[in-house]
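Practice problem. Given the sequence and the SMILES for flavin-adenine dinucleotide, write out the predicted structure.
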Amino acid sequence: MTRVIVVGGVAGGATAASQLRRLNPDIEIVIYERYRDISYGSCGMPYYIGGDVEKWDSLTNMTPEKFRDRNIFVKTEHEITAVNSKENTVTVYDKNSDTEFTDSYDYLILSPGGSPKKLPAVKDAAQTFSLHKLADLDYIVEFIEENNIKEAVLVGSGYIGLEVTENLTKRGIKVTMLQHDEQIYKNIEADMNGVLYEAMTEQGVTLKLNTEIDYVDGGKAVLSNGEKIDAPLIITGVGITPNTKFLNSSNITLKDGLIPINKNGQTNIDNIYALGDAVMTHFQHVPEKTTQSALAWPAHRLAHIIANQLAGDRSITHEGLLGTNIVKFFDYNIATFGLSEKDVAEIPHFTVDQKQKNKSGYMKDASPIHIRVYVSKDSGLILRAAVVGTEGVDKRIDVLSAHTRLGGTVYDLINIEIGYSPPFSSPKDVINMIGYKAIEKAEDL
Ligand SMILES: Cc1cc2nc3c(=O)[nH]c(=O)nc-3n(C[C@H](O)[C@H](O)[C@H](O)COP(=O)(O)OP(=O)(O)OC[C@H]3O[C@@H](n4cnc5c(N)ncnc54)[C@H](O)[C@@H]3O)c2cc1C
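Answer key:
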């Protein structure tokens, strides 16, 4: 019987295993997960801290027992320490028995994700945590409750930093956010991120730019600016490193620590597939540009593709990503897709900005929405889009992203029929206005 081993049992791994079982009832599937938990919603964890997720149990989808019922064998606390791609075997370290054994596969699916980067200045302090796996959530919540935490220091301002800041604040904890340079949340343009500063001021979050922790002294943090601040809880959110060291001797190609994959989800070795935060792929609309998309949508999409590939349907392939993403920070939402600002600068383009109300201006709760698109001078495709506002940001980024994904140019946006009624949009929505403005701008190029 064909045997598939899956490395990593959370977003990519658990989903790929489930999809494969759905498509093929006979294949043998084993998931190895090095930690305690499998198949949980990492994305919901910040919201458990703040109370929007009320039940811890609702964060978990499948348990090893439920998988067992579907004839999928899950081994938690089992770490793959090496892959021998010539022999089609993996070396497995069983943490419980402190023993090592070898297992063999016909196909290997890698979804090992990443690990949070550690900051040397704080990593050994007992009050330092990062929020990455479900057990981290438990440690953080327990620590807050046991120590009656009322203040916290948040290091880093990526999307997890923002979400954790919001949710700690909602829990009544006063947050000081530290950013080592002078721009927070670099995923959005520096001249569009003003809403983040506004939200921090409104919500009583203290932001210190160009500031790092030099060292921790008991319950205090000594900062690079010489200040000593209360730091009974420190949470770091400074990015992830792909968990691919165990592949070093495997003959699987790695680039910058990431696993490049082809349209089938295959690595350079035919019977080894990969997905999730540890893979390198390319943009769908600019295929010559590579990307790592450490987000849940791509992991789920590739799980479906790889499962179909292994189940024998080779027609379902991966066409690249747009990197569509959105984050909520208190009342504000920020979304982007496409190339980074740095990468977009290498391609001849022009930009179009449109600021208008998200719904009919006479509605009392209409609020501003700001869209910027970067348009390829050659193709008219939107290379990058950024959207900032309160309500309606999700709709606009999704329309722009779907339009681009299906090959639509910026000029076609004038024909996008937005569902209109005053509480939702305007007869000429911000999306349409981007199209009209782009046509005008292109005439002057
Ligand atoms: C707090 C938080 C909030 C997030 N919010 C969002 C969001 O709002 N939107 C969004 O799109 N994405 C979000 N993400 C990102 C999203 O969760 C990831 O993109 C997704 O989980 C990636 O799936 P993965 O399978 O690659 O990695 P993971 O889900 O991290 O799973 C990898 C698993 O592999 C295991 N593993 C690693 N190496 C080995 C080994 N050698 N042997 C055995 N097991 C191994 C790891 O222990 C881990 O459990 C969030 C992530 C976090 C942490």
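Check your answer against the key. The CA atoms of residues 54 and 290 lie 38 Å apart.
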